[in-house]
## 1
Amino acid sequence: MHLAEAWRAMSCEGGEMSGEAVREFWDAQAATFDDEPDHGLSDDATKLAWTALLDDLLGDSLGDVVDLGCGTGSISSLLTRRGHRVLGIDLSPKMIERARAKAELEGLDIEFVVGDVQHEPVPERELGVVLSRHVLWAVSDPGAVVSRWSAPLADDGIFIAIEGVWNGAGVPADAAVSILESQFRDVVHIDLADRPVLWGKEVDDHRYVVVGRGRDEGARC
Ligand SMILES: C[S@@+](CC[C@H](N)C(=O)[O-])C[C@H]1O[C@@H](n2cnc3c(N)ncnc32)[C@H](O)[C@@H]1O
């Protein structure tokens, strides 16, 4: 069963899932998570495509990054290789265990912490980039997550939300755009469904990235 289907089946079972049930769900995915080409990035072409996408989105920026819901840390690794100092946060201890093991194997210095991005205190230092890939769809209030993690961004900081709609689960692009528009003056949506190299296969669902720049002063707490 596709991950999104399994998640939908679970979350439909009995209303709001407890924090423990959510952690157990993601812990159970950790061992096989990297089997998907876009998760493990074990194919050179896929890894290169994600590196190129990050280069396009981030340009010369080298600020500190938080990778929200970092999973097994594949994107954290790419960001570290670009020269960013990266903090990866994930509520699943098993995902973080794998992320740490992968970073050690690759000789990369990445800080990974177990934490819920809905409650984890945001860093006091200024951030250059906050990135979340395939995480907003899995939290109960994606707007609140974007709002609290936009706060530590520098004035020229960037929020990157890579999301989609797969097998009946996900965040539709217009909803993600409207969430970022509530925080940023400049919001750009880029369709990614027509780039099979990112996914390791042709896809016929919805995949996109929404990028927010220029934190809206009016949205600051
Ligand atoms: C589909 S995976 C994406 C992992 C990673 N971002 C990637 O793209 O490879 C979703 C991840 O979000 C994490 N997650 C879900 N809800 C979370 C929350 N409230 N706080 C932190 N992490 C969360 C899960 O544990 C899982 O690792």
Note: Strands lie at 65-68, 86-90, 111-114, 127-133, 153-166, 169-170, 184-191, 206-215.
## 2
Amino acid sequence: MTRKTVTVFGATGTAGIACVDELIRQKLFDVCVLARKPGQQEKASNGMTHSEATKRKQYDEWTRQGVTIKTVDATSVEELIPALAGTSYLVSCVPINATESQYPLIWACKEAGVERFVPSEFGAIYEFEQYWPTNTSHRVMARQKAYIRRVIETTGLDFTIIPAGLWPEYYMLEPVAVMGDGNEKVAWSSGPDVGRIIPHILAHPASRNAICPVAATAYCSWNELLEVRERVLGRKVDRYYWGSEQWRAAYAKQPPGIISLLMAIGVALTDTPAGMSLFGNWNKTFLPEFKGTPLEVVFRDRVEPFVEGIRAALVASGELAAATTSK
Ligand SMILES: NC(=O)c1ccc[n+]([C@@H]2O[C@H](COP(=O)([O-])OP(=O)(O)OC[C@H]3O[C@@H](n4cnc5c(N)ncnc54)[C@H](OP(=O)(O)O)[C@@H]3O)[C@@H](O)[C@H]2O)c1
């Protein structure tokens, strides 16, 4: 039987790299990567972009492992359509602030005869969040992600929607602002585990035209998660607990930037009584063999270095001081 080809867009980002690496390891699909031509607009979810040299090294490594790299102007359907010929599944891992880059890609997929489009989601269940009462920058983004799913459906392409809950590394800067009372279970997926679970979801027949809300790393409460962090660090983790009113007030005072975006997520998760329980654990039912990275390892290898990086970037931009005064 000929193997299906999975093509990854936004491949050199956090979710993208882990997705391509897992596709290679899994050996179920032929793997292709769309490389955006040098000089195209560069964005990143955490504001820290990658250099051309870093990407080139990554492409060379993947080429050695049998991946086909196709370099395209990602804004041009004329270039995207031939590059997508032969692709069965397109996985998009574009950053949060480049959601709109997927429009030409969807059209090109339709024209190239691609079977399924997996849009860059990997957070809340935006289908619900788009209707949440408080208007924030995150709800604007949620509305666009929900709309993109409609666009995919309009083209007649199959889709797989993958909400992945909270990436713990984004919410661990101390004092940690817990969303709610910290007792309700939520889905946690570190960025690398998000990328790693995508090929497993795609290989499962139940993922066709489905919303598959996963907890790729852990399904536990904030308090349970912070307990593990305290064990790893060998000390108490400084934290406070905010309900929806406090999140809304903090968001209203915060100037635009990364902290404002994170506060908008706090608003989204506490804005309705059902907000916290909307994340699912699809993988527990459908992918029992998938093992998330143990939380101890996630904290040591991913969360703590990420928190230090974010802290340094926020201090450099002056944003951290603004956040401290808004508490
Ligand atoms: N729930 C959460 O807590 C949470 C946290 C973080 C992210 N997310 C979600 O996860 C998804 C993936 O985010 P990520 O953090 O993995 O992304 P990321 O690491 O920021 O992605 C960066 C990569 O995106 C590509 N890219 C850069 N600028 C672009 C542009 N203008 N147009 C298209 N592609 C561009 C580049 O790869 P190439 O040059 O190889 O194309 C770049 O290396 C997003 O949808 C985001 O909303 C969720």
Note: The longest strand covers residues 30-36.
